[in-house]
Amino acid sequence: MSFASDRLRPVRIWLYGLAAFVLLIVVVGGITRLTESGLSITSWKPLSGVIPPLNQAQWDAEFEAYKQIPQYSVLNSWMSLDDFKYIFFWEWFHRLLARALGLVFLVPFVIFLFQKRLSRDLALPLFGLFVLGGFQGALGWWMVSSGLTELTSVSQYRLAAHLTAASLLFIALIFVARSLTPGRVLGHVTRFHMITASVLVAAVIFQIGAGAFVAGLDAGMGYNTWPLMDGAIIPNGLLVMDPAWRNLFENALTVQFVHRMIAYAIVAYIAWLLWTRNRDGGFGGVHGWLPRLGLVVLLQVALGIATLLTSVPISLAVGHQALAFMLAGLAIAYLADLRRVG
């Protein structure tokens, strides 16, 4: 098929570009979180908020609003206006990119509709992704609002919802783009392959959510040893809170332990998929995704361990989060290609 006859090629490029843009927003969001900048803007102004303070009076007003929340009074009362400007920038930039995502989606979408590149069966799901993007923005403000009255940081529950929604939007964009790729995909595919690939996607998304709880509780700042944790494989204190379920979400020790265990489980699961595939026919055709997934998951584990052992430097922590999204993207691409085998 020539480029000229492939009318959906611009649509695929646009969707992959949107996925890359979502990943950029996630990276900037990670920096915003790690620099504790997320509560620096205490109001939500969808239009006027695009423009940052432009004069001294406006900066003073923003700084004064920040001084009214617990994070300033409890943790950051030492801040000067210049210090505030630094954290303000990251939150403003994160929100700016999120707003820009709407335009980057909507303008090409309308153009493709006029060009009749999108069938009704494709246009409706794509508009659903636009709605999901808007919902993600609402989740972002819901998350920020949790830290403006009583907490000194955002709720880890809302942070997990925000990040998990971003991961779902990211993989949905890749899945649709990959599903629109022309041509046949080779390989023998059974129901077993479809189920195991779906489980892998779900496990990676679940781990991203678990990682958000680690970030929300700053759980990575403690227990910075590996493979032991607090001097043991299974540390004491995992169930000190009552009721017991709270430990999974509010006990920093338990939250980090669960994140580690899920990582081990995903490594073992991919190793099992590689073993069964190697035994049953090798990695030709669509199953060529599996060795790539194996390599990326090992890199992700190594990066996670390095992040932990070095007490969560921004560069490694952001890289760890970004690579988690890339792993999810590879897993969903594998699943999409399994569906295209014919």
UniProtKB/TrEMBL annotation:
A GO molecular function assigned to this protein is: oxidoreductase activity, acting on NAD(P)H, heme protein as acceptor
EC numbers on record: 1.17.99.9
Record field: transmembrane: 12-31, 96-114, 126-144, 159-180, 192-217, 257-275, 295-312, 318-336
The answer to keyword Iron applying to this record is: yes
Q: Which UniProt keywords apply?
A: Cell membrane, Heme biosynthesis, Iron, Membrane, Metal-binding, Oxidoreductase, Transmembrane, Transmembrane helix
Record GO biological process? heme A biosynthetic process
What reaction(s) does this enzyme catalyze?
Answer: Fe(II)-heme o + 2 A + H2O = Fe(II)-heme a + 2 AH2
Amino acids binding heme: H259, H320
Instruction: Tell me one Pfam family matched here.
Output: COX15-CtaA
Broadest EC class assigned to this enzyme = oxidoreductase
Q: Where in the cell is it found?
A: Cell membrane; Membrane
What cellular component GO annotations does this protein have? plasma membrane
Matches recorded under HAMAP family:
HemeA_synth_type2 (MF_01665)
By what name is this protein known? Heme A synthase
- Organism encoding this protein: Devosia aurantiaca
Q: Which gene encodes it?
A: ctaA
